[in-house]
Design goal:
Blueprint: H1 5-13, E1 30-34, E2 37-38, E3 46-53, E4 56-67, H2 70-73, E5 85-92, E6 107-109, H3 116-126, H4 144-172, H5 177-189, H6 191-203, H7 207-213, H8 217-227, H9 239-254, H10 276-289, H11 293-297, H12 303-310, H13 337-359, H14 364-372, H15 380-386, H16 395-409, H17 418-428
InterPro entries: DUF2851
Amino acid sequence: MTVREDFLYYLWKFGKLHLQNLETSQGETVEIMHLGTRNQYAGPDFFNAQLRIGGQLWAGNVEMHVQSSDWFVHHHENDTNYDNVILHVVWNHDMDVHRKDNSVIPTIVLKNYCDEAMLARYQKLLHQSPKWMHCEADFPVLNDFLLENWLERVYLERLETKAAEIEKLVKESNYDWEAVLFRLMAKGFGLKLNSQAFYEAACSVDFGLLRKFSDSQQTLEAFLFGMVGLLSQEASQEQYYVTLQKEFTYLCHKFQHKKTPTIPLQFFRTRPANFPTIRISQLATLYHQQQHLFSKVIHTTSLEQLYTILQVTTSSFWETHYTFEKQSPKRIKKVSKKFIDVLLINSIIPLQYCYQKYQGKLAVDGILQLLCTISPEKNAIIQKFTTKNINIENALQTQALLELKKNYCNRDKCLECAIGSTLLHQLQN
């Protein structure tokens, strides 16, 4: 049967082997004193193992491959990081591997010591007919405590990834946290179709200018609409459009702001309430009404307070328009709680986490608790999970499940997942 290296790691790390009477392919006895520590980075797979091989005690590293010859496929013979390998663990032994002094590196053929029931379970988990998730049939038997704790850990992995991206922005902005928040909020207001266009426009401007304009809703709208390229042509004879266009031209001249090209905005396949025109006006309202927004949201752990801060409408012109060209029946266009939830999940909470790390005052429990008060997201992936008898109650769970599907299920990393590892372990008990 076909196995992958991660199965070898699993067997070795958790000792899922017949450890008595271990021998190398050269016939030397092997006694394991310490399996070593799993290395997640470049270099041998396990560090600091202690083994007795042929009666002699060895301390060093262990490297694993499906085929012995993979040593040369991966060019380890030219890498000094592998000079201290004391044992080569393989599934199939097709050739000896030598050290630089021409001595043979002892090799254990793992398939000779693996329990047949474990192999059958592995085969069932990863190599049956294609499924949306390999373990989907086993979800109903999972322990709730296991699932809850694993999802929390997976969410923190997702949060760390987002925080790493924010940390780059913080450094690029010379630690102007308000400017970073504006970029994240602009991206969020752009939603899926226009997020990149809004984000690039936000990154192209000195946030200090927006601070200057925040006293005037109209001035903010003129600058923001101009930034995303909606004032670049004679698109409308509406007086409001003409006024904004003139004001943006004046601001660019006064503050020597260059009109940089932007990614074309998308109106097609977008609900009118999500048109970039509406979202830009709401963003302008937010920064007009909530000056020093960063200081207001960074320490707030109350969901209701965050809703109050972020719940904004458009300027009066957009109550009767969705575009500059055409008038529509009057309607107050207020951001919904669902939209605010998206901002909290993708922008505010990751920024809170990143800032707490920067301050050395990380309060993970508070962040997790806040996320647990937010309603679960609704999308195709989450809907699919609900068909697997998973009780989904909040946004922490949905975020974790999205991460689980993307970085574990889709990449067949079952043996690095607590769920897959537990399912294999249960067979042994």
